[in-house]
Amino acid sequence: MTHTDTRRYLPPEDLVRNAHVSGRAAYDALVAEAEADPQGYWGRLAREFVSWKKPFTRVLDDSEAPFFKWFDDGTLNASYNCLDRNIERGLGRKTAIIFEADDGRVTRVTYAELLERVCRTANALKSLGVAKGDRVVIYLPMSIEGVVAMQACARIGAIHSVVFGGFSAQALRDRIADTGAVLVMTADQQVRGGKVLPLKTIVDEALALGGCERVRHVLVARRTGAPVPFQAPRDIWAPALVDAQPATCEPEWVEAEHPLFLLYTSGSTGKPKGVQHATGGYLLHAALTCQWTFDLKPEDVFWCTADIGWVTGHTYIAYGPLALGATQVVFEGVPTYPDAGRFWKMIEDHLVTVFYTAPTAIRSLIKAAEATPSVHPRRYDLSSLRILGSVGEPINPAAWTWYHEQVGGGRCPIVDTFWQTETGGHMITPLPGVTELVPGSCTLPFPGISAAVVDETGQELPWGQGGILVVKKPWPSMIRTIWGDPGRFKSSYFPEDFKGRYYLAGDGAVRDARTGYFTITGRIDDVLNVSGHRMGTMEIESALVACTELVAEAAVVGRADETTGEAICAFVVLKRPRPTGEEARKIAAELREWVAREIGPIAKPKDIRFGDNLPKTRSGKIMRRLLRSVAQGEAITQDTSTLENPAILAQLAERS
Ligand code: WT7
């Protein structure tokens, strides 16, 4: 394959001149340095970008591969690196966070103020008995408190696990139970798009579901001040406790491999996995990629629109920008409230220079701008912007072009960053002062990342041929293990198919025959990407069949969707005769609500189709590829000769 899009976008000259990585020759030199001596390269950067309490003497220990260790005899503290260090460099009065609430209210905190809040919160955690290595689940809205909570855990060596506010009580319980958390940090309520979500009540429900007996306390922040159920002595109001604490807190110096956080993500089978990241290597890549991919400079105003419940919000809100002493915007709300011009208004108001968002948001804002001219980006002054970023899913060339022209005024490079929860930070991405862009391609690996496209046997494929995306060498911010399940870590990411040597990303990719640029062709496992959120089909299937009263059997596949990238399509066999018409619609609505309760609203199937059965082979295996065609509304061209019950396909094609 070669790129079908023939447009080329060269980096603007003034940007190239002043960029941290300036020009293709500089990029090539970094790639060559990393290639010739990976340990020398990563060691050099780890000394430049991270302050160590005790310097490391060893860069990589691969003696227990694939359980790699980086900088493992060094000690450091992530919160020291993100806060104290900046203040020591004279940035105490610099704005760290510009927080804009759902209703538009703006709060600013400086680095000195942020440090004080982190220290008080860290002391509050300590006063509740939280110690190094303990797990703390954070179920907080997008807020300064959310970032403070993460940094406070890092300060005392507690391992945080942030759970996205959109997850249900059941999903929250599963994560609390799996981590063995001793404390949950939450707020009375969350407000997004004018709607209130009762976070504290959801925490109560989660804990009541059982299996969370190690939780001693729930620390509750105030967001709305609404009355919420409160169980003393388990529940504690955060403001009273935190404000009473000393304003300083000596950082806990941890080994580089000490886990910084666990973050749950969906795999192709089984329950969500707790991806474990290590302090030293992760922090290095967070800072490094923030500087090189976003070319962050002291005067920049960075805005990453992700939620701290996802890895993007970890690396590019809670850690990366702070490690560089940058100023960033943190936003509580949603892009469409009070109207779909909110992002553009905020860029204008806060003079945002580097803006990082997801294709799904762009696609929905294109639609909105086409329908309502007053929310079109051209109605706003976006001249502060200099770099745009995209993350979470492939950005289709039409959305790319609109983003480039209408938002970036044709002058801002778009960095289409490919990476994953497991990779900790950017893996394949343009650099704004280096890369000639091709819409729809994430271009070339970040220097030091040895991405490749291989066949099923691990043989590297020539450019132009599609295959499996792997990473051939370890890198500092890679996943260390799956919490509590090292076996699953090995089999998921370092499978024997590649002799356990290569990291398997789970995506397909192809390199352009001429430029070697990568294009991601989508997941090669049963993982869906809905609005940039990763969902396991098996997870949704288990949620559906857990509705034992109604559901006999369920199969979930993805289909293409114009706005959300992929949409969830569920095929369901009920324990009663196949419903049609009004009844089918009613049951479908019930099942959607059921899934929202089991997992969260993001997992609600868009389509639900009912059948008397599912298409199966004679040995009883569900034929998913047929279901994918049905979901897509395509004519069935595949061989159906092995199908036990071909008539079922027509039935499943009917929409309810
Ligand atoms: C999966 C990882 C990366 C942080 C947010 C999502 C897809 C991610 C891109 C991109 C094409 C992308 C992949 C990947 N993905 N970025 N720029 N182009 N696909 O993290 O939830 O761990 O999901 O998102 O399929 O495997 P995640």
TrEMBL record:
It catalyses: acetate + ATP + CoA = acetyl-CoA + AMP + diphosphate. NCBIfam families: Ac_CoA_lig_AcsA (TIGR02188), PRK00174.1 (NF001208). Catalyzes the conversion of acetate into acetyl-CoA (AcCoA), an essential intermediate at the junction of anabolic and catabolic pathways. AcsA undergoes a two-step reaction. In the first half reaction, AcsA combines acetate with ATP to form acetyl-adenylate (AcAMP) intermediate. In the second half reaction, it can then transfer the acetyl group from AcAMP to the sulfhydryl group of CoA, forming the product AcCoA. The modification N6-acetyllysine is found at residue 621. It holds the Pfam family AMP-binding_C. Residues 27-82 form the Acetyl-coenzyme A synthetase N-terminal domain. Residues 92-475 form the AMP-dependent synthetase/ligase domain. This is Acetyl-coenzyme A synthetase. Acetylated. Deacetylation by the SIR2-homolog deacetylase activates the enzyme. Its EC number is 6.2.1.1. Belongs to the ATP-dependent AMP-binding enzyme family. It comes from Variovorax defluvii. ATP binds at residues 392-394, 416-421, 507, 523, 534. Mg(2+) binds at residues 545, 551. CoA binds at residues 192-195, 312, 531. Its cofactor is Mg(2+). InterPro entries: Ac_CoA_lig, ACAS_N, AMP-bd_C, AMP-bd_C_sf, AMP-binding_CS, AMP-dep_synth/lig_dom, ANL_N_sf. It is an enzyme of class 6 (ligase). Keywords: Acetylation, ATP-binding, Ligase, Magnesium, Metal-binding, Nucleotide-binding. Residues 539-621 form the AMP-binding enzyme C-terminal domain.
